[in-house]
Every structure is written in structure tokens, then in C-alpha cells.
Specification:
Helices cover 32% and strands 22% of the residues. It is of the alpha/beta class. It has 2 domains: 114 residues, Urease, subunit C, domain 1; 330 residues, Metal-dependent hydrolases (TIM Barrel). Bound molecules: zinc ion (ZN).
Length: 457
């Protein structure tokens, strides 16, 4: 592998406070040198890449991805998911445990790591289940999972209802030095709801989910965390109330980290009218005021990281044929008839996100809501810290895990152009500004738009 020499870019590294033009030399799997323009004189044998106009940042890390492997190859595989991640600028993704079989044993963890090792793309960080089979009844063997390489525990997709089971998990995980990520949902309050409660649910004729279904569970788990003296990580925060609870919990000394997804901070529930079940996820898209609150919380530091909750589904799981023609203009047919409303409620939850997360986050930068430095903190520095990874930094001796971003490259999300095996996205057809143009993992380019994007300039 030839050393790589990146010249002319603005290097952004929240860990060291760097935001300035730098040349960067990568040798083997580490950053060999980083210096002001012209200061480094590498050997002629290096491969030089001129990245003027771009940002060079510590590689993006997603703490919340569903790779569907083992179990659901029609939705995604470890290979397709890790390639989609690399194309989105991610050098590593945390793969959730709700596979089939569930990742509640070292055998499944070993399978995932072995498959990932065969793919030249983003790295896979295994997430182990909190409870066996995600059934919420019996604790998984946390020590064994940690020894196999698990870096976080989560039953994501399902809440952990039993407070004693969760308290025990928090204590053991804390002892192991690993985080627990919580899907906050009080199923007693969801009561068969399909989208956020309110006018859109009413006009479609489907049952609504009250925001309290999330915030009441956040409230309970903040208390559990305080009692256990252990940290918690809250997945996909989506409501104003939850954000306020996190702020209050921190004032009371709770150790909380939390994430928000690009779909929750970009879209409100009205997107369901245009995209149908491709805008149906759990927690659901909320109201405009919730979207605004999430954006404020991303900017002011309340929310620590952006996570994709990449959740690939095939058209059948999304009930696409039964609901064909029901959504988007000019085919509005609301309220849905009884069979359609049932199909909608039964449709799988989730949207893909790996390939659109960075551009949607960059939109907040273009609108002046986030500084570039804060964006990289949200997508690299803080995720690396949560998962206790070596990356997330851009200094000499750090891993050569790097994302090169062209913040101004305009493109349209193609309906069938995803590297993911699935295309359940409410962002298809959207014009976006900025994207990853190259992703480097352990010194090796695993995704690149060069020279295409250079020629386009
Ligand atoms: Zn979830």
C-alpha cells in the first residue's frame, strides 16, 4: 500500500481544536504527519491527492446501524451495508443486535466480525443484546459478549421494560466500561399507533403515537441510571419533552449521552403524506416544534451525536403494493380505507440513512445552525468517545481513518441509486449540497468519487 499524501484541504479536528489548511501524510494505517501547506516534503513514491475545496476530517462513525445480517439478506448484508456506510463517509458503524439469530452470543458476534473482515469498506462495531433473543426476560452474558468484541449493548427496536433487568445491565456494562443504548418506548402508551398523534394521523385515518410514549420511558430510565450510578445512552431522541428531560437529568447528575437522526431533525410528520411507509419509523416523525427543538439541541450540546438508525427494508415489508398510489401528489386518497390503514400500521418501521446522513447534517451547516467543527464533533469525535474507539481524532499517530468531504458538491438523491440493498428513503429525489467524496479506512481508500468530482469542478 503506497503512502497517501492529501494536499490543500481544510483539516477539521474538534479533539485538538484544529480548523485550518493542512497537508496530511498517511503511511500504513496511521497518520504519519500533518502540517501547514508546503511544510511536508514526502518521498516521490507517495500517491498525492489534491483535495482543495474539501474538508479532511476524522472518519465519521455511526453508533446506530441495522445491517440485517445474519437473517435478512433481501434487506441488507454485512457487505452491502458496510459499502453503503463507506459511500456515506463512515469509517465504522455500530451494528445493532436485532438480527436473526439475535446477536446475544459470541458465535453471532464472531460471524459478524469475520464477514466484515472480508469486506474492504467501513469497519463493523458489534452491538450485543441486553436480553436473550431481545425478549426482555433474561439477561444476555455481557462478559462473554464483551470478550468476543461487542462494544455496546442494546435491545434496539425493542425497549427493555423490566426495570430490574435494565438496572442490572447498566451496572454490569458500567463495570465492563461499555455503554448501553436505549430504545425509549412505553408500549403501553403506543397502543397500536403508527405515526405521531395529530392532524396527519387523523386525515390518514391511522392511530397516533403520543410523544409521551417516548418521554415517559426516558423519565423512568434517567431515574434508573441515577440510582445505578451508571451512564446511559439514549437512541434516536425525537421529542421536545425528551430533550428537556435530558437537560434536567444532567442537572441532577445523571451521566447521559444521546443521539438524534437526520430524518428526525430534517422532516416532520407531514412527510408521511408524500412518502407513505418510507417515512414510517419508530419513534415516528414528529411536529415542526420537535424538529426545531432537535436542531437547537444539536447546536447547544444537549444532543451529543448524530446517528443514522439505518434500517433497510424490502418493498414487501413496507407493504408497498397494497399502498401503491395512496401517497404523494397527485394520488392522494385519504382517509385510507380499512384494509389500507391496516397494511400501513403493519408495515415495517425504519428508513435507510447511511448514504444521506452527512449531506442532511451539512444542510444545518449551510443554514448557519451548526459550525463545521460542531458537525464533526457530532459525527466523529463523540461517537468515537462513546464506543471507546481509537479514531475520532486527526493528529500524528492517530489511525488513518479519514473522511474527505466536499461541502459544496450538489447532487440529487437517485431513487434507485443506493449502494444499500434497500431504497426505503423519504429523501429520494431531494437536491442535497455536500457529501463525502472519499473514505479512508486504516490508510486504504475504501470509497472515492475521484476523479469524477474533481473533473466536475
Ligand atoms: Zn430504535
Amino acid at each position: 500500500m503506497k503512502p497517501l499524501f492529501l494536499i490543500g484541504a481544510v483539516a477539521i479536528d474538534p479533539a485538538s481544536g484544529l480548523e485550518a489548511q493542512r497537508d496530511i501524510l498517511l503511511s500504513g494505517s496511521t497518520i504519519a504527519a500533518i502540517a501547514p501547506p508546503g511544510a511536508l516534503k514526502p518521498e516521490p513514491a507517495v500517491t498525492t491527492i489534491d483535495v482543495r475545496g474539501c474538508w479532511v476530517v476524522p472518519g465519521l462513525i455511526d453508533v446506530h446501524t441495522h445491517l440485517r445480517d445474519p437473517g435478512f439478506p433481501q434487506k441488507e448484508t454485512i457487505e452491502s451495508g458496510l459499502r453503503a456506510a463507506a459511500a456515506g463517509g463512515f469509517v465504522a458503524v455500530a451494528a445493532m443486535a436485532n438480527t436473526d439469530p439475535v446477536n446475544d452470543s459470541p458465535e453471532v458476534t464472531n460471524y459478524m466480525l469475520a464477514r466484515a473482515a472480508q469486506v474492504k469498506a467501513a469497519a463493523l462495531i458489534p452491538v450485543g443484546a441486553v436480553t436473550r433473543g431481545l425478549k426482555g426476560v433474561e439477561a444476555a452474558d455481557y462478559e462473554k459478549l464483551a470478550a468476543a468484541g461487542v462494544r455496546m449493548f442494546s435491545d434496539d427496536g425493542m425497549p427493555v421494560d423490566d426495570p430490574a433487568l435494565l438496572s442490572n445491565a447498566l451496572e454490569v456494562a458500567h463495570h465492563l466500561g461499555l455503554p448501553v443504548s436505549l430504545h425509549e418506548e412505553d408500549r403501553g402508551l403506543v397502543r397500536g399507533g403508527a405515526i405521531n398523534a395529530g392532524a396527519v394521523a387523523q386525515s390518514l385515518g391511522v392511530a397516533g403515537i403520543a410523544p409521551a410514549a417516548e418521554s415517559e420511558r426516558v423519565r423512568r430510565d434517567l431515574e434508573l441510571a441515577l440510582k445505578a450510578g451508571a451512564p446511559i445512552h439514549i437512541a434516536h431522541l425525537s421529542t421536545r419533552e425528551s430533550i428537556e428531560l435530558v437537560r434536567a437529568g444532567r442537572r441532577h447528575g445523571a451521566q447521559i449521552t444521546c443521539e438524534a437522526t437526520p430524518h428526525h431533525f430534517t422532516l416532520d410528520v407531514r412527510a408521511v403524506l408524500d412518502f407513505g411507509t418510507d417515512a414510517k419509523m419508530n419513534p415516528p416523525l414528529r411536529d415542526t416544534a420537535d424538529v426545531d427543538a432537535l436542531r437547537d439541541a444539536l447546536a447547544d450540546g444537549t444532543i451529543d451525536m448524530i446517528a443514522t438508525d439505518h434500517a433497510p427494508h424490502d418493498p414487501e415489508s413496507k407493504r408497498a403494493s397494497e399502498l401503491a398510489g395512496c401517497f404523494g401528489s397527485p394520488h392522494k386518497r385519504w382517509p385510507l380505507d380499512e384494509a389500507q390503514a391496516r397494511a400501513f400500521a403493519a408495515a415495517a418501521n425504519g428508513v435507510i440513512g447511511l448514504e444521506t446522513a452527512l449531506p442532511l447534517a451539512l444542510d444545518l451547516v449551510h443554514r448557519g445552525l451548526l459550525k463545521p467543527m460542531r458537525l464533526i464533533e457530532l459525527m466523529s469525535t463523540n461517537p468515537a468517545r462513546l464506543l471507546k474507539l481509537e479514531g475520532g481524532r486527526l493528529a500524528q499517530g492517530d489511525p488513518a481513518d479519514i473522511t474527505i468531504i466536499d461541502p459544496n458538491l450538489e447532487w440529487t438523491v437517485p431513487p434507485a441509486g443506493f449502494i444499500s440493498r434497500s431504497h426505503n428513503s423519504p429523501f429520494t429525489g431531494r437536491r442535497l449540497k455536500g457529501r463525502a467524496v472519499a473514505t479512508i479506512v486504516k490508510g486504504e481508500v475504501v470509497y472515492s468519487l475521484f476523479p469524477h468530482s474533481r473533473a466536475a469542478r
